[in-house]
TrEMBL record, chains A, B:
Source species, domain of life: Bacteria
Protein's UniProt name: Transcriptional regulator
Organism listed in the record: Kumtagia ephedrae
Domain HTH arsR-type: 1-92
NCBIfam families registered for this protein in UniProt: HTH_metalloreg (NF033788)
SMART domains in the cross-refs: HTH_ARSR (SM00418)
Gene Ontology molecular-function annotations: DNA-binding transcription factor activity
Length: 118, 118
């Protein structure tokens, strides 16, 4: 199996339960016990999924002794979004136009009314 | 293994060679032979990767008899980008502001100078 960073992220996300755990953690920290309950999973099963998410850098363990709440880390998703941007032109017809438009706006701002940019 | 659509997409992308094949096909159709050459891979190896990409809907087989060029299909990437949007606020500080700004622009256009919108 491949171990480059992006492949690990994609591999970790390629499971609906792990995506559900991530969605839960995105609303706030949770312990393994708190995660196991709504998903109706055994603690070892939750722990296994968390380990995959942790290796991918999507989840980190808190340092509070005993309970060690898990915390969502968005960085790997940001990198994945960056990779996807290479392909956006294939489905987003308005992307090129928006991109051109935003560049125009930036140009306007530089020559225009924002005193911070002078 | 999970077989929901998004999981299949992520699974297919979780390999650097498959992502490289996809990047090549995004520049234009190619036959299995044409794909095998630059990647220095055997035809069966390329075929195996292509099968995973095809099952995920990221590649389709052309109907030209004999050569059957493979073609890139962007739809699964668009859906993945849609899923990622749920998390964009975690890394894109300017996202909320840009979103608000674009809504303002749209409002301006509606009340403004584009006759198509009236």
């Amino acid at each position: 199996m491949s171990t480059d960073r992006l492949s690990m992220t994609l591999q970790a996300l390629a499971d609906p339960t792990r995506r559900a755990i991530l969605a839960r953690l995105a609303t706030g920290e949770a312990t393994v016990n708190e995660l196991a309950e709504p998903f109706d999973m055994s603690l070892p099963a939750v722990s296994r999924h968390l380990k995959v998410l942790e290796r991918a850098g999507l989840v980190e363990q808190g340092r509070t002794a005993q309970f060690r709440p898990r915390k969502f880390r968005p960085e790997p998703l940001r990198d994945l979004a960056g990779w996807l941007e290479n392909y956006r032109r294939f489905w987003d017809e308005s992307f090129d136009r928006l991109d051109a438009y935003l560049k125009e706006l930036q140009k306007g701002e530089k020559h225009g009314s924002d005193p911070k940019d002078r």
